[in-house]
Design a protein that fits this description.
This protein is α/β, with parallel strands linked by helices. The chain contains 16 helices and 15 strands. Strands 4-3-2-1-5-8-9-10-13-14 form a ten-stranded mixed sheet, sandwiched between helices. Strands 11-12-15 form a three-stranded antiparallel sheet. β8, α7 (235-241) and β9 (247-250) form a beta-alpha-beta unit. The two termini are 36 Å apart.
């Protein structure tokens, strides 16, 4: 039991590094690690340097990492509060295996400096009934410390779009601010967010778009949407969110359970004049925290949404050209797909990496021109993208696209994918390509074509 965390950490490391490292070498290194005495886990506040966090760290260690109970059930403000420079509105979905992380992140927020410049409010669902309901951080002025005000409402279904819609309406009315950020905290799968194990539900992208459209009626678009969740840095999602936010912060990889360092994130937001000013420091703060925890797979991108619909349209034109080149180019396409950086069991592929490999593998002049246009359009989306692997620093890319490697994966996810707003219009060319690519492999070993409609009638596995 004392070495279980070590085994889990190395298993994740093997999964991340399998394409670039020899598996036998990783196993030998794991054995050497297990032969050493077990090491204590990294302290939660290892990176903190401010006086409030030094005090908090001492208090946490003295209490054996016990988190303070939130304030007793409190009636939250119903009338508008004074305007502040920023508001951070959070949908926290912790009715799953992330529940132990909630209190640590609330502790970080409570100890953050400059909370008098930041409204923090949201909905919280957790397996821990003591921290479940609608909440806000109150106080934060020099004459009083911040505290957590919580109206306990029992289990919430964070996968219900009505919850997000009502949260936005309440928070935007009661906590006015010149700049607004929306935080999604919990598990993500690229096509779903706010996964709620207790309710057996999650927000799909069409539900997310609908809730944002209803909740933001009468308000300008948000300044920033933060996904403290896995696999949400997707071009399709950026295009879907373009009417509702100017900037998105997300990862195309699995996000460590520790997530964002919220004491630093809150301070960065409070000090920033714009979302564009806040985004690069937020990316670097996340990587600082991940590096201290030896989570070398971490990467994060700050992306603009305005260019995303044009980038999706350019990708659709690439898809239509690939359809014209199939079935002769199928082997080259699959080879490029295999070599591109991927995530989520191979269903998500880094867009810029894929574009470059398709150009090199196929050598078609017309396709090369369309790929260059798509790469340029996708590059305009990226404000700041950085990673820890293979070495820390800025990276080209960081935005994924859905490209299932097998026909069964396409069949299973096709209906939800086709329902996304980004796939209506010019972006639909990408789906036509996926249908054609996997359709030509279904008939027989010679890759004879099959009717396109056949893919839509096969039930998911």
């Amino acid at each position: 039991p004392a070495r279980a965390d070590t085994v889990v950490r190395w298993a994740r490391r093997c999964a991340v590094d399998a394409k670039a490292a020899d598996a036998a070498r990783l196993v030998r290194r794991l054995k050497a690690t297990l032969d050493e005495p077990p090491r204590a886990s990294a302290p939660r506040f290892e990176l903190s340097r401010t006086a409030p966090f030094r005090r908090l760290e001492r208090a946490v260690r003295a209490s054996a990492h016990a988190s303070p109970e939130p304030a007793a059930a409190t009636e939250l403000p119903a009338t508008p509060r004074p305007e502040r420079p920023w508001s951070l509105i959070g949908l926290i979905a912790a009715d799953n295996d992330l529940a132990p992380e909630v209190r640590a992140d609330l502790d970080e927020l409570l100890a953050a400096p400059m909370l008098d410049r930041l409204h923090v409010a949201g909905e919280l669902d957790s397996r821990d009934g003591a921290v479940c309901g609608r909440f806000a951080l109150t106080g934060g002025r020099s004459d009083e410390g911040p505290r957590l005000a919580l109206t306990r409402r029992g289990p919430r279904n964070t996968g219900a779009p009505t919850l997000l819609r009502e949260l936005l309406r309440w928070a935007l009315r009661v906590f006015p601010a010149r700049r607004r950020a929306l935080l999604f905290w919990g598990h993500g799968e690229g096509s779903r967010i706010a996964i709620d194990d207790g309710a057996g539900d999650a927000l799909t992208v069409p539900e997310l778009v609908g809730a944002l459209a209803d909740g933001l009626v009468g308000h300008p678009p948000l300044d920033l949407v933060l996904f403290d969740a896995c696999l949400m840095a997707k071009l399709e999602l950026l295009a879907d969110l373009a009417p509702f936010t100017r900037l998105v912060l997300a990862s195309g990889e699995v996000v460590p359970a520790s997530g964002l360092p919220y004491h630093r994130a809150a301070a960065i937001l409070a000090a920033a004049g714009t979302a564009e000013e806040a985004a690069p420091p937020l990316v670097e703060a996340f990587l600082d925290d991940a590096a201290a925890r030896d989570q070398g797979h971490a990467r994060l991108v700050a992306a603009r949404t305005a260019p995303a619909p044009a980038a999706m349209a350019a990708l659709g034109r690439v898809g239509d050209r690939l359809v014209a080149l199939l079935p002769d180019a199928r082997g080259a396409v699959l080879e490029a797909r295999l070599m591109a950086r991927s995530a989520r069991a191979g269903q998500l592929v880094d867009l810029l990496d894929l574009v470059g490999r398709l150009d090199r593998h196929l050598g078609d002049a017309e396709l090369g021109r369309l790929l260059a246009t798509a790469a340029e359009a996708a590059g305009r989306c990226i404000l700041h993208s950085a990673a820890l692997w293979p070495s820390r620093g800025p990276i080209a890319g960081g935005i994924n696209i859905w490209f299932p490697s097998q026909a069964g994966l396409l069949r299973a996810g096709r209906a939800d994918y086709a329902a996304r707003p980004a796939l209506r219009g010019p972006g639909a060319g990408w789906l036509r390509f996926l249908d054609r690519l996997h359709g030509v492999g279904v008939g027989d070993e010679h890759h004879s074509s099959v009717p396109r409609g056949r893919l839509e009638t096969v039930p998911p596995p």
